[in-house]
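Please review this one:
***
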Amino acid sequence: MFRSRVLHQISNIASSSASSSTSSSVTPTHHLITLIRSPIGLPASSRKTLEALGLYRLRESALHPYSETTAGRILKVKELVHVANVTKAEGEVLRKRRRSEGSGLEPSGRVYGGGKGLAESQI
């Protein structure tokens, strides 16, 4: 019951956005789907649904236009994904966004692997 109501609402949004071509750049027309939880331990159908959405790794995003098929797939794995309604241009920018360079580990100057962690030059 709930699923059919959501599918109907999504299809109404998709049809209304397709009919109004002047405001199509302002209204969201796509789903930006990001995998936030691992499908390990879930049935094979859930894993295959994620593959159908184009999601293979954690924090990977995929951009799909509004459709009943996409809405049904999202509802099947709704606990594992984060969905944002965006325009196509916004979605492409957000999907390609990566961490900035140099966001890894920085050396602290401590020596690991023995004692108190003091370097020999400090003794």
